[in-house]
Amino acid sequence: MDGATEQERGRRGRRAIGLAALTTVLVLAADQLSKRAIEHSVTPGEQRRVLPGVSFVNTRNHGVAFGFLPGSQGLVTILIGVAVAALLVYFARHLERPLIWLPTGMLLGGAIGNILDRVRHGSVTDFVKLPLGWPPFNVADACITLGILILFLLADHARTARA
Known about the structure:
Layout: H1 6-41, E1 47-51, E2 54-61, H2 73-93, H3 101-121, E3 124-129, H4 139-162
Antiparallel strand pairs: 1-2, 2-3
Helix pairs in contact: 1-3, 2-3, 3-4
């Protein structure tokens, strides 16, 4: 270990949990507010250019991130449940790892945001459209993707630091 006392490790663990919770709430709020803003300002089928190559649209996604597994609600629900459970176990076992709270909060906030849409509407609102046929996505999808990337980078860094 790092020579920290049990009390210091407990304090770090509580801090990581608090930061993960705060990140979860911030991601969830940004996701839900952005989806509601799009639903009230962009009609389905409309495309509003916001930057060169970037448009806002109002589409419904019945699959997981970026439109994968469309129409598989049962499978999607199981996959999300397994992924969230695995994430929480990993987080609980690595509370002392620096920055572990960040991807955990991003992933939880994104997952909860998309789950809320599925419960309310049976699908997820996607609205950011990029060029070259990239499927539309939302804030939750972006946070899930970035959260996975950051989690892998942190895990790899910890692995190489031990080697």
